[in-house]
Amino acid sequence: MIHTAMKIIFPLTLALALPSAFAANTPPRNETTIVLDENAVKNLGIKTVEAEESAFDRTLFALGEVEHTCESHSVLSSRAAGRIAEVLFHKGELVTKGDVIARVESRQAGNPPPMIELKAPASGLITDSQTHLGAPVEPDATLMEILDLSTVWIIAKIPQNDASNLNEGLTAKIRIPAIGNKELTAKFLRLGVGADAQKGTIDAVFALPNPNNELRPGMRAELSLIASQREAVLSIPREALQGDRSNRFVFIKDYEIANSFVRVPVLTGDQNHERVEITSGLYPGDEVVTHGAYALSFAGKGSASLKEALDAAHGHPHNEDGTEMTKEQIAAAKNSESHSHSHSALVTTLSITCALLFIAVLAMAFIIRKRLKA
Predict the structure, then answer these.
(1) What is the Cα–Cα distance from 266 to 321, expressed in whole angstroms?
(2) Distance CA 256, CA 240 (A)
(3) Which of 20, 67, 72, 348 would be 148's cystine partner, CB 3.0–4.6 Å?
(4) What number of CA atoms fall less than 13 Å from residue 213's CA on the CB side?
(5) Backbone phi and psi for residue 31, each to the nearest 5 degrees, phi listed first
């Protein structure tokens, strides 16, 4: 009887337990190649360019700030004593050279007393004013300070190792966050008087035209300039490079399998605002993925479907054809997933129950056999 029960229970236990075991040990997919269909390539907008050897500009990035030039400062004063009778311009306003800024009633005898016009000695921004209506005025007292901001300086912190690459007339691309994403062009004038030994930097002075007077001293500046140039450097567009500093990789087109892309680890060198040097991992002529590389990087391992790539890249669910799922489809998918999990849990429970039952039968058989021998 015991042998008969074991013959029935043992196969049943294996039949229920083995599917779960095999499901949990499915062989991993290819970890370097991603295969898509035509529809996936179209929906992801996959575009490729060839890695090429060409002249490469190494770009230096630096931070700095806007300062007024040393020749830009001027002051307004009166040659005669009196009192302020009229104020026409105030602090923060722009003036043009020759504009009447204020009028002073002279202390000289007269009926009415002589009026003295105070005119702007230069064009610029009034940064300080002591011209208050009725206030006394003494000769040579500073009444206003004016900054000519038609040209400003950008003072940038440059690594000392790159200082020798800065030549007079070298241009730099400037971005001032305070005025938006405009790209401005400044010219290198000279290095600063001293260097920062602790930070390893030195000040570099750039001249930047400011015809609209929209730049103000103290504004933050972001610079990029060509520090050096080399010939025959293998490089790719920056958007093709994926991963972090410790794990850089790109996707290249596989010429043997249609619509397949191989993940290739690479080592990088210098970079500029458009391209990055590749020192290892690619050859000239390799077609690297630019547009769509970010989505492919989420696909991770093996043969990714269009849905998997789009879900990872965009952060919300898609259908298999690449279209976005509606609310109804999302709800249906969740219900289906819940049912699948429930079924899986049921199979697991039955497998465990049968295994325990099998162990119990073996234990019972062992006990009965022991008693019979006794």
Answers:
(1) 32
(2) 21
(3) 72
(4) 14
(5) -90, 0
Report phi then psi at 296, rounded to 5: -65, -35
Judged by DSSP in three states, 159 sits in strand
Chain centroid, CA 351 distance in Å: 51
For 136, half-sphere exposure in the C-beta direction (CA atoms, 13 angstrom radius) is 4
Give the whole-angstrom CA distance, residue 226 versus residue 170: 8
Query: pLDDT band for position 352 (50/70/90)?
Result: confident
pTM over 0.85: no
Pair 259, 37: CB distance under 8 Å: yes
Q: How does DSSP assign 61-101, residue by residue?
A: EEEEEEEE-TT-EEEE--SS-EEEEEE---TT-EE-TT-EE
Sole residue written with tokens 């567009």 = 237
pLDDT value at 291 more than 80: yes
The backbone torsions φ and ψ at residue 274, rounded to the nearest 5 degrees and listed phi first, read -120, -40
Q: Look up residue 315 and give its amino acid.
A: G
Pairing of strands 52-68, 220-237: antiparallel
* CB 68 within 8 Å of CB 44: no
Helix axes 327-373, 2-24, angle to 10 degrees: 150
